[in-house]
Amino acid sequence: QEKESWLEESSTMHDWVVWCKSKKGAEEIRPFELSGKEIFSNYDETKSKEEKNKKNGSKKKAHRGQSVRYRSWWKQGNIKMAVSEDHASCWVHKDLTVTTKQIQALLTAAKASGGKDECQVRLTGIEREYWMGTEIGRLGGYGFRGTVTAGDGSNQKGGKMGAGYVNLRKKRKRQQRKVGREEEGSSSNRPELAAFVLALRGTPVTNPMLYLCDNQALLKAVKRWVGEGGKATLVGAPDADILLEAIEELRKRTTAGAATFLVKVKAHRGEPANEEADIQADKAISGKDVPTEWHDRTNRAVFTWQEPRRKGGTVSYEDRKSTWNSGVRKAIRRGSAEEEVRKHRDRVTGAWKQISKQRRRVDVSYDPSLVSALQHGTWMDEEGFKKTCIKEKRKRGGIQQPLYGTWVADFMLRQDAGRFMLGKYLSDKKIPWQRRRRLGMAVAGNTPTASFLTKIGKMQSAGCRLCRIAREARGESTDGLAAETHGHINSAGCEGMATTVTAAHHSIWRHLYDSMHAAQKPKSKLKFVTLDKESNMSTLWRREEFLRICSKEELAEKAQDIEVTIPVKKSQEARYNFDPESFFVNRFWGRRPDGVAINEALQIVYMLEFKRSTDRDEGFLEVKEAEANEQHKSIIGALKAAAPKWEFEQ
Question: To which H or E segment does residue 402 belong?
Fold first, then answer.
């Protein structure tokens, strides 16, 4: 509609300019071409470069410039320039005179490379609707009766810091400063605070001021000094030298009766003043003539360490330094953890020192894993030798003896098993400390069960106390009790906890099952059948969708052949002795999968089984997978035999 309106207005105008895609070949003539002329196009130029590269055997395409924004840039405010997918051309009215200098300016704009678009606020015409609908426009920033400023800080690699601020209405009024004292470490908060001080300096103390920033820590630091009766102090503040000046400037403005508003805006969202301040902060670091402020050292200790950085599957280390803060505390904790890992690995590969001393005359007959390590040629490299030793020892290891000396070390150092979520849970202050303590005890293996208390000499028997109580209530013998371990009391194998654990198992599975159903895409053909409750095979084969797979008689016939090969459990002996002929078919129809999903369009049926297991043993996934396959052996086998055209998966 806007395009049609403009075309109608342009028919009576001679000063219009159209920037558009270049035409390729015999395309339809556009309306503005009838009264216009093309003064610039980069189609011929890039085409000739690409043809030249092609002749030279190069597949490199000619650079079309970065003169457009990314798609849907308005949704996220991304004002970085993207590579132009199409060639550009410029049209004006045929009677308009254009100089060579102007055409050269267009060429330069089309060939622009990188950077950000120039955000120019125009509060007239149709652009007003856009700018008034942005974050600052909705907050009333563009109509503020005072000085509108924005500041930003930059903290680059190598510890260099810069700060800059701009005045939204006076584009030329801007300041830049290098922020000193990088010898004590760098942070993003320090240059942000410096940018705020620059904005306060550049605004008359009698003028109301609106300051836009993208740093929440700055607002928190200033807020502590707002109001009366507080106990705010600069003692312990990491950037007390800059904060002191900011407080003094704010005091002057308060005394003069001028209001100061600090507003948090989203970073890199296309807000003009904030984006310009970001550019000024970056230029402050690279600028040769930019002065440095706030460079006086303190008497605080400076810590240095190497911070690991992961990129593309490789780990590199970056030198860091800082006074005491949470980052230093984190580095110390990580360093102590790495030292513990080294100790446990050295314990596994303790023969390395002996081998490195004797070199060629080595007796390794007592440890086959060392022989394998030498055969692989890794023994000359200490780290490679250790990894090979650990790998070989793991192959020969059993469940009776931990690899790293303790079961806790084995659990925490298991390869290809991240512990990120475990650490995140344990460090989450929102979770009650009792729950976090229980998890920590479970990982460390010191839950106060009878097995652990017997180990440390606090109890005489490791038998499960809950199983004993349950048996005594039934009047049964308490001989041969299972060991009371953390895994035992959290499983259905514990006679005293069986009902509770089973109910918890079903509750968790129902939640997972409902979540999978809710996450389905609207066009999905997969149908979850047993949403309300579990159903056995007999109940399932009363439904029409399953009867279309095969008849109940056909399935019973195939199931009979498989069920007779499965041993009769001790708990099933009474039913078997009562009616041995129909026992196997009845056992099949009584089998109850945790869930069933069917896709009739693709002719696939999924039998779902939920297993809860401790992951202390390394092969727990394989064990539980084998248990589930054995559990549904007769169901999957009978279905495949009765309906060969369908696919059945567990």
Answer: none
* Location of structure tokens 């040629």: 377
Q: Beta-carbon neighbour count of residue 584 at 10 Å?
A: 20
Give 447-473 pLDDT, tens digit per residue.
Answer: 999 999 999 999 999 999 999 999 999
Residue 306, SS3 per DSSP: strand
Q: Which two tokens stand for residue 40?
A: 């610039």
Q: Is the pLDDT of residue 391 over 50?
A: yes
Amino acid at 519: A
Our CA angle for 120, 122, 125, nearest 5°, is 145
Tell me the CA distances in angstroms from 395 to 390, 392, 421, one per residue in order: 9, 5, 28
Sheet with 647-649: strands ordered across: 527-528, 595-599, 604-608, 647-649
pLDDT in tens, 3-62: 788 888 888 888 888 888 887 666 788 888 888 898 887 765 555 555 555 555 555 454
pLDDT tens profile 170-204: 866 678 999 999 888 888 899 999 999 999 999 99
| DSSP-derived secondary structure for 95-110 | T----HHHHHHHHHHH
For 447, the 3-state DSSP assignment is: coil
Read off the tokens for 32: 């503005």
Are 223 and 174 contacting, i.e. CB atoms less than 8 angstroms apart?
no
Q: What do you get for the CA distance between the two ends of the chain, in Å? A: 56
Count CA atoms within 13 Å of residue 611 on its CB side. 16
Let me know: does 42 contact 110? Beta carbons within 8 Å: yes
What is the rounded distance in angstroms from the CA atom of residue 130 to the CA atom of residue 122?
Answer: 9
CA pseudo-torsion sign 472, 477, 483, 486: negative
CA distance 387 to 45: 57
Where does residue 132 rank: exposed (0-12), middle (13-18), buried (19+ CB within 10 A)?
middle
Instruction: Give the containing element (helix H, strand E) for 163.
Output: strand 161-167
Question: What is the token pair recorded at 166?
Answer: 């701009």
d(CA 186, CA 5) in angstroms, rounded, equals 55
Give the SS3 label for residue 588. Answer: helix
The answer to whether the beta carbons of residues 215 and 237 sit under 8 Å apart is: no
Helices H, strands E: what count in the chain?
28, 17
| Integer CA distances (angstroms), 127 to 51, 131, 133, 169, 583, in order | 41, 6, 10, 17, 80
d(CA 274, CA 264): 10
> Contact at 8 Å (CB) between 264 and 219?
yes
Measure Cα distances from 162 to 216, 246, 247, 292 in Å.
18, 17, 20, 9
Query: In the 3-class helix/strand/coil scheme, how is 4-64 assigned residue by residue?
Result: HHHHHHHCCCCCCEEEEECCCCCCCCCHHHCCEEEEEECHHHHHHHHHHHHHCCCCCCCCC
Rounded Cα distance between 255 and 204, Å, is 13
Q: Rounded to the nearest 10 degrees, how much is the dihedral formed by the CA atoms of 549, 552, 557, 562?
A: 70
Supply the angle between the helices 382-396 and 368-375 in degrees, to the nearest 10: 130
439 within 8 A of 378, measured Cβ to Cβ: no
φ, ψ of residue 152 to 5 degrees: the values are -155, 155
